[in-house]
Amino acid sequence: LDYVNVEEILRELADSFVPRMESKAVKFSLVMPAELPMVYCDRTRLTQILSNLIDNAANYTPRGGEVSVSGDSDGSWIKLIISDTGAGIAKEVLPHIFDRFYREDRSRNRSTGGSGLGLAITKQLVEAHDGTIEVTSQLGIGSSFEVKLPLG
User: What global pTM score does this model have?
Assistant: First the structure.
């Protein structure tokens, strides 16, 4: 564990995702204050958390949609929000999306849509850093994942 520059990680991830977003005509934006504080965490794991959430947003956002990543801090926590204008998640499904092997779309399988482990692992990694992850979503409007991590 070490003090990590979250803004640097987000900019690196943005650079890596931009070509994919552009190929789908998806607008991608980073919205951050002038300076985010450093976070004491495992850089590799934080990158994995954010990469998985941005990857999911890219996968579920249709052509012409939008994915945004924003960051903020209140002095004791850093809050990172990954939002998309994708299909959204049904209300009855929301309680299950962090469950291992759960897939919202039953037609998706390992060959077409992953193992159903991504969000379960993401949640475990966030909680291993004493953080929280929450989701809000509306069908047809999109989803927003909020990751909160303690600064100290």
Answer: 0.88
